[in-house]
């Protein structure tokens, strides 16, 4: 699936997901380092937890990312990074 950055940015802001570069200071500017017409690809079951961060232009294909996970690299959109499920109790 694909979405244009201009449509994705409001979702990123409301869900506290950063697509950032050094010097970016707040969530309101997330994704502004991308062209508004850029296409971002993702799988239908995409799950991004709050406080996920994509540095530079690594967010052109969105993988599932758990809270407080980040990447500086472009990752395959079919993988999962970080834990977004509660740990089992022992």
Low-confidence region ranges:
none
* Largest sheet report: 3 strands, mixed
Total beta-strand segments = 8
- The SS-based structural class is alpha/beta
Shape designation:
globular
What is the succession of H and E elements?
Answer: EHEEEEEEE
Number of helices: 1
In helices, the fraction of residues equals: 10-25%
Strand content: 15-25%
What does the average pLDDT come to? 90
Global Rg = 13 Å
> End-to-end span in angstroms?
39 Å
Biggest sheet: strand arrangement = 1-3-5
How are the SSEs placed, and which strands pair?
Blueprint: E1 2-4, H1 5-14, E2 18-20, E3 39-42, E4 53-55, E5 61-62, E6 64-65, E7 70-71, E8 80-81
Parallel strand pairs: 2-4, 3-5, 4-7, 6-8
Antiparallel strand pairs: 1-3
In summary, what is this structure?
With 90 residues, the protein is α/β, with parallel strands linked by helices.
Kindly list the characteristics that best describe this protein.
single chain, 90 residues, alpha/beta, 3-stranded mixed β-sheet, 3-stranded parallel β-sheet, 1 helix, globular
Describe this structure in words.
The chain is α/β, with parallel strands linked by helices. The protein is 11% helix and 23% strand. The chain contains one helix and eight strands; from the N terminus they run βαβββββββ. The protein has one helix spanning 5-14, and strands at residues 2-4, 18-20, 39-42, 53-55, 61-62, 64-65, 70-71, 80-81. The protein has a three-stranded mixed sheet. A three-stranded parallel sheet has the order 2-4-7, with no helix packed on it. The longest helix has 10 residues, at 5-14. The chain starts with a strand and ends in a 9-residue tail after the last strand.
